[in-house]
Amino acid sequence: MTALLIGIAFGFALERAGLGDSRKLAGQFYFTDLTVFKVMFTAIVTAMLGVFWLARLGVVDLANISVPETYLLPQLLGGLIFGAGFVAAGLCPGTSCVSAATGRADGLAVVLGMFTGVLLCGAADLGGAALYSATPRGSETLPQLLHVPYGVVVFAVVAMALTMFMLAERIRTAS
Amino acid sequence: MRRTLAIIAATAATLALLVRDPAASSSAATLDRLAKTIANEEDHVTPEELEQWIKQKKTLRLIDVRSKEEFAKNHAANAESIPMDQIASAPFKSAETIVLLSEGGAHAAQAWVILQMRGFRSVYFLRNGTSGRRYEPGRDGC
Amino acid sequence: MTPRRYADPYVAGTGLGLVLLASFVLAGRGLGASGAFTTVAAKVIDAPSLHRSEWLLLEIGGVIIGGFVSALLAGRVHWKVERPSRMSLAFAGGGVMGLGAVLARGCTSGLALTGGALLSVGGWVFMIAAFAGAYMLAPVVRRSWQ
After folding, report:
1. Do the Cβ atoms of C25 and C107 come closer than 8 Å?
2. Touching A: C residues 80-139, CB under 8 Å
């Protein structure tokens, strides 16, 4: 099935980048290893340009690609919370699986911790909280929000990313 | 390798800035635009306005969306017959200004939405149709 | 075998981006990870906030396989246990991420990567907030990383 194959490629790419190593990931937040930022934003830029151009050339129909739904407040708060957990664990849900698969016990600990956290959320019926359903915006995109053409936002994101990559190369790091 | 990737990205991004956006025929943005156009009353013309446009010799296409039979009975001068069931595939040029006609205006308004969704922007319908009647509950027709 | 060096981050990132793009084109959707965790949890506790997706379950299975194969080929597979303080912070961090991911309906894979590439407002909000949250807590857990 496609899901399995895509997952295999995903896991392979993550491991190749070294993102199965919690120390490497954590280094992002102490400015000793900026791999997380470089990999993530390169991936975003690549896929973003790919989607724009494939759609523009008529190879894909944008209507056939699901855009994640926006819930402003929960995602802002959830993001902050997630980030805090991320720097403590040194791994995110995806990379924790990669880490565990390569034999790292702390990766396994993150997997188990995540599973526990998620179970507790279900048990506490987080979905019933008012905050959980606050500020829904549907599949809103930045071009829609800012009333700016899609291509302009694409350009701005790439410009920002390339600028930040150049700055990142100036910072002396282990990698 | 890095330099190559950066150049590809920069080129692709710059071109993205310059070209037309990918068509997103049923995106929320399109529907939003349509709703606002309707709310701003920029979707229709009144009989007086249409008269002005014809006097000013604006290049128009008057499209009557009623059935062939009704069209045969009588129709406006210079009107073309494109019945409703053909409006989705009838050829138009994006540069043309199209004014849609029907008897009560409802079919013309519906045809307006269809042509907008097909991508034509310079489309209008004759408000209240050729009969010029305002909607009255209990009355027939549309 | 001496472990091979990791790939250049920009090259690896491009590869990852192409995988993401392939997912968009072939499956009409992006990647994910936290959703797989909630799917498993939903089999235990049937709560509405626990997002279900069989697709993600298969995908995360692939992630495990792919990660293993890559490490195997590079000589990077070995059992490694950290000291207790690191292990407990890893578990706790995982728990906290679970909360964040359920609240946000996604994680770095589903929201930041996928949402980022599709220019989703929520995706970008989550990503910026996540980086902010991490940088804010970093000084507090610095010791544990040394």
Report:
1. no
2. 80-82, 86-138
